Description:
The complex is a heterodimer. By secondary structure, chain A is mostly beta strands. In chain A, the strands form two sheets. In chain A, strands 2, 4, 5, 6, 9, 10 and 11 form a seven-stranded mixed sheet that branches. Chain A is built from no helices and eleven strands. In chain A, strand 7 and strand 8 form a beta hairpin. By secondary structure, chain B is mainly beta. Classes of the chains: A mainly beta, B mainly beta. At the A-B interface, strand 4, strand 5, strand 9 and strand 10 of A face strand 4, strand 5, strand 9 and strand 10 of B.
Amino acid sequence: KAGVTQTPRYLIKTRGQQVTLSCSPISGHRSVSWYQQTPGQGLQFLFEYFSETQRNKGNFPGRFSGRQFSNSRSEMNVSTLELGDSALYLCASSPWTSTYNEQFFGPGTRLTVL
Amino acid sequence: DQQVKQNSPSLSVQEGRISILNCDYTNSMFDYFLWYKKYPAEGPTFLISISSIKDKNEDGRFTVFLNKSAKHLSLHIVPSQPGDSAVYFCAANAGGTSYGKLTFGQGTILTVHP
Lengths: 114, 114
């Protein structure tokens, strides 16, 4: 089975712009979660989608949004970029077939905001 | 408020010896725990998990121990190999409506010397 894929792998934007990141989960996985990794804050949960519905959301401003399509692929969007949004953005998928579910991560998208 | 803590930023071990990575948590609602390994510029790779109904789970060279009363878990790697050198993260999930949300520790850098 192919793993979680994320595009693009690297992105450079300037302050005030917006960006869209894409994630394709492992085939058959219906849950997609997004995380932000920074040196100062570590890995922090952004949101989770299941069957095109956002089920959970972390403590991030409304500039961070996401969606999931019927084929389980997901996108996240960051509007009005700030310097502090520079981070590695990770997507993880899970089958969500039981109470306990491992998450499998993609390679991430490295976003640099100038 | 850091709910998952890895108090050792780094650990150095000789090849063939045991590596013990520790993790403490404060949220008593956490009922599922996972360990991930991460190389630079890659996403975290799932290693092993344990639910709160168990106190030990083993998979090859990796064993995770859970002490619920102490809110402490540890990952044992025996024997350690140079290829195990990476950053190790412990993560926790509260189940229930915490869909897809993993809370991560800050990570421990493991270096295994030949």
